[in-house]
Design goal:
Elements: H1 2-27, E1 44-50, E2 59-65, E3 73-83, H2 85-92, H3 99-102, E4 115-123, E5 135-139, E6 147-151, E7 156-158, H4 165-185, E8 193-197, H5 202-213, E9 217-222, H6 227-232, E10 237-240, E11 253-258, H7 265-269, E12 272-280, H8 290-301, E13 308-311, H9 318-329, E14 337-342, H10 346-355, E15 361-365
Parallel strand pairs: 8-9, 8-11, 9-10, 11-12, 12-13, 14-15
Antiparallel strand pairs: 1-2, 3-4, 3-6, 3-15, 4-5, 5-7
Helix pairs in contact: 4-5, 4-9
Bound molecules: NADP nicotinamide-adenine-dinucleotide phosphate (NAP).
């Protein structure tokens, strides 16, 4: 057992050194892609585009070619989109290791945004489930644009009639992350006590409401200005992190879902039940390997403690979008909306998101 962990530790050190070197190479290579020519006959649309990595200054609204749906795709006229921290990670190409997947030197995909809600304008000839005129929502790269194409079986679900386009556009990444953190990684059961750290943000506002819909007793951690909002969406208890450190509260939780990552694993362990679970969703930042610190520490600590520490990466699923649609239709989940920006102000929306103090979701209006 001990030898196995020594070997694993050695491998980990080698991997970290190799990854650091790779990050150094990736960070020093940042060119701008030239804009492709558009044929005179092509239909165009407005979209937020970035042709090199950098600050929100690299974002431009351009006229680009309007996409056409393939046989298994639908064409959606986007009505609203929402901002996630993922958008500015893409924009900055950071952490640098991400560039291995999204483009070394400059982004392979130059369109930004993921979460959307809108109306189906056309469908490919093999599409059965959706028709022109359907109001839909989901997640697709390039959502900060007038049109996107989405695969019929992809991240696409019907928008409930009682939910606005802005609310539906809020759901994508944040709603899916909250659902999968609580249900799949946290294995939350009715009656259990769950603490949501970062309860007032995009993921947190969904997590509080979804946990309540599971029948859990929910404690939300947020700053003073958000106490009333977090209570209003259903939290049974609210801890103001400006006044109190939840890891010193003396309480015990079955599950902690952590969007902030501002407490050590040992401190979290102090308020976790013996068989409790900590799901690390976010918070660890940095251009280099900062995002790996939490998972590495969790890996090192796990063999020595009874609790379960794990990170997660949310995955879009049509089934989960449908579950979220049902939760909104029944009124168990109501997305919390912060500021609404027009397409021309995506840079300002991203700057606001990067400050890390959104109250619910930041929306881009494409009407
Ligand atoms: N693993 C995944 O698959 C996945 C998926 C989605 C998101 N994420 C990550 O999860 C994190 C949260 O995402 P998000 O969309 O919810 O971000 P967000 O909308 O920007 O929300 C951030 C929230 O954190 C709160 N906060 C800041 N400092 C805090 C503290 N010390 N204690 C408690 N709350 C604090 C802020 O509230 P105040 O204004 O009150 O401070 C704000 O409401 C990000 O790091 C993101 O990258 C990961």
């Amino acid at each position: 057992m001990k030898l196995r962990y020594k070997i694993s530790g050695g491998i980990l050190v080698v991997v970290v050194i190799a990854l650091s070197s790779l990050g150094l190479v990736l960070s020093h290579n940042s060119d701008c892609k030239p804009a492709p020519a558009i044929a005179d006959t092509s239909e165009t649309m407005k979209a937020t585009v970035y042709r090199c990595y950098g600050s929100p200054d690299v974002l431009k609204v351009e006229d680009i070619e309007k996409p056409a749906p393939a046989d298994d795709q639908v064409l959606v006229r986007v009505v609203a989109a929402s901002v996630n921290p993922l958008d500015w990670h893409y924009m900055r190409g950071s952490p640098y290791l991400m560039r291995l997947m999204i483009g070394i030197g400059s982004p392979d995909e130059t369109r930004l945004g993921v979460d959307y809600a809108g109306t189906v304008e056309a469908v490919g000839r093999n599409v059965k489930q959706f028709k022109p005129g359907d109001d839909v929502f989901g997640g697709q790269t390039g959502a900060f644009a007038e049109y996107i194409t989405v695969r019929e079986g992809g991240a696409l679900a019907m928008k409930p009639a009682n939910v606005s386009f802005e609310q539906a556009a809020s759901v994508g990444i944040a709603g899916i992350t909250a659902l999968q953190a609580l249900r799949d990684h946290g294995k939350l059961e009715p009656g259990q006590k769950v603490l949501i750290n970062g309860a007032s943000g995009g993921v947190g506002t969904f997590a509080v409401q979804i946990a309540k819909s599971f029948g859990a007793e929910v404690t939300g951690v947020c700053s003073t200005r958000n106490i009333l909002m977090v209570r209003s969406i259903g939290a049974d208890h609210v801890i103001d992190y400006k006044q109190e450190d939840y890891t010193e509260s003396g309480n015990e939780y079955d599950l902690i879902v952590d969007m902030v990552g501002n407490h050590s694993l040992l401190a979290n362990r102090g308020v976790l039940a013996a068989d409790g679970i900590l799901v690390m969703v976010g918070g660890t930042t940095g251009n280099w390997l900062g995002f790996l610190v939490g998972p590495i520490k969790a890996f090192m600590l796990s063999p020595f403690v009874s609790q379960d520490f794990g990170t997660m990466l949310a995955k879009f699923s049509q089934d989960d979008l449908t579950i979220l649609a049902e939760l909104m239709q029944s009124g168990e989940v109501t997305p919390v909306i912060d500021t609404i920006y027009p397409l021309s102000e995506v840079p300002a929306a991203i700057r606001y998101s990067e400050e890390g103090h959104a109250r619910g979701k930041i929306i881009i209006d494409l009407r």
